[in-house]
Write a structure and sequence with these properties.
With about 120 residues, this protein is mostly helical. It is built from 2 helices and no strands.
Length: about 120
C-alpha cells in the first residue's frame, strides 16, 4: 500500500509537472502575444500622430490658400471697379473730345483750335 501511495503520488507529481510546463508555455505565448500587441499599438499611435500632423499641415495649407484666394478676390473686385471707372472716364473724355473737335470741316477745325489757343493765351495773361 505504501508503494501504491508512492506510485500514485509520483504520478500526480508528474501530472503537475506536465501541467506546469503547459501553463508555462501558455504564459510565454501570452507574453509574446502581449508584446506584439503593445508593439502594434505603439506603431498605431505613431501612425496616428503622423496622420494628425499631416492633417494639421494640410489644414494650415488650405487656410493659407483660402486667405490668398480671398485676397485675390478683393484685388480682382478692386481692379474691376477701377477698370469700370477708367472706362467711364474714357467715355466722358471721348465725348468731350468729340464735342471739342466735332468740326468735320478742316478749316472750321483750324479756326476752332486757333480760337482755343487765343482763349488760353488770354487766360494766361
Amino acid at each position: 500500500t505504501l508503494l501504491q501511495e508512492k506510485a500514485t503520488f509520483d504520478q500526480k507529481i508528474e501530472e503537475r509537472d506536465i501541467e506546469i510546463e503547459d501553463i508555462t508555455e501558455k504564459h510565454n505565448k501570452l507574453q509574446s502575444d502581449l508584446s506584439k500587441c503593445i508593439q502594434e499599438r505603439m506603431n498605431a499611435i505613431k501612425t496616428s500622430k503622423r496622420m494628425r500632423l499631416a492633417e494639421e499641415k494640410a489644414y494650415n495649407e488650405m487656410m493659407e490658400w483660402k486667405t490668398k484666394y480671398n485676397n485675390l478676390e478683393e484685388t480682382t473686385q478692386r481692379v474691376q471697379t477701377d477698370l469700370k471707372d477708367a472706362q467711364k472716364q474714357n467715355d466722358n473724355l471721348a465725348l468731350e473730345n468729340s464735342k471739342l473737335a466735332g468740326h468735320h470741316n478742316a478749316q472750321q477745325r483750324i479756326n476752332h483750335l486757333l480760337n482755343l489757343k487765343k482763349e488760353c493765351e488770354k487766360l494766361k495773361k
